[in-house]
Amino acid sequence: MLRASLWGLLVPLTLLGVGCSGDSSSTSSSARYVADSLGNVFSVSCSSYCTLTPKDATLKPLSCASADGVDTFVLTGSRILTVHALMVSTYGGASFSAAEPARPVRCASDADCLPGLGYVCQEELCQNNSTATPMTTTDIIALCQADILWPLSCPYVTNVVFAQRMVEVGQVCGTAANCSTVPADCKQPTPVAPRLDAGSPSAPELDAGAAPAPALDAGTSAIDSGT
After folding, report:
1. Which end of the chain, N or C, is less surrounded by CB atoms within 10 Å?
2. Do the strands 14-15 and 70-77 form a parallel or antiparallel pair, or are they unpaired?
């Protein structure tokens, strides 16, 4: 029941474009780039909303949606700036489901968060810290996919890690549109106090389908916009 309720959950989602920032030059005057939590780099092209093209041509935006249209990487956001794989119709409309692939945008500085959109870099995530922008269940679902590889086939739910994380989100958020609790094994948007366990800590095991997020080198941007 938890999984089924989240599959049809309608939550606030903003397709980010040049119009929402109030600065039409922020992404249209020159090439801009963002990186997802796995280190994949995308070029950004904005009009009514921002579409993303991965530098890695083998990375495909499989939305696993059943509607007719074109699977597309787009920039979305509420509290967390996110790379989202959506089905975009030939008329330009986007079909959204909470079960679609999404990864938070990774950063090393505010410059990696497309200045002008209102996001700053905190905890290696582009976050909007305005009190008028609450954390949504959509944000939490994206955070829970931060270390999961983009799907290579559909349905996406066959990824056992993603399916389990969705259950965990259902347990803490139910069907609420806004939710402030992030499951413990998901990427945290705020610092987490270290847990003092008895004995020596052991290296965490990776779940099937999950990949470790690449480390950020000191003084190095999260985004390499070169060739």
Report:
1. C
2. antiparallel
Question: Cα(81)–Cα(125) distance, rounded to whole angstroms?
Answer: 8
- The predicted-structure confidence for 120-150, as pLDDT tens digits, reads as follows 999 999 999 888 888 999 999 999 999 999 9
Whole-number Cα distances in Å, 145 to 10, 22, 57, 173, 212: 18, 30, 21, 16, 11
The SS3 of residue 6 is helix
What gap in Å lies between CA 114 and CA 21, rounded to an integer? Answer: 10
Helices (H), 22-159: 25-28, 137-143
Q: Is residue 135 part of a domain?
A: yes
Instruction: Give the chain's domain count.
Output: 1
Q: Beta strand pairing status for 120-122 and 41-46?
A: unpaired
More confident of the two residues 200 and 157: 157
- For residue range 188-206, list pLDDT tens digits in order: 999 866 655 555 455 444 4
**Structural domain of 85:** 2-18+40-173
122 domain-assigned: yes
Element (H, E) at 83: strand 81-88
Cα gap 109→132, rounded to integer Å: 23
Question: Using CA atoms, how far apart are residues 111 and 113, in angstroms rounded to an integer?
Answer: 5
Asked whether residue 25 is domain-assigned, the answer is no
CA angle 109, 51, 155 (to 5 degrees): 105
CA distance 67 to 224: 34
Q: How far apart are CA 82 and CA 98, in angstroms?
A: 13
The answer to whether residue 182 sits within a structural domain is no
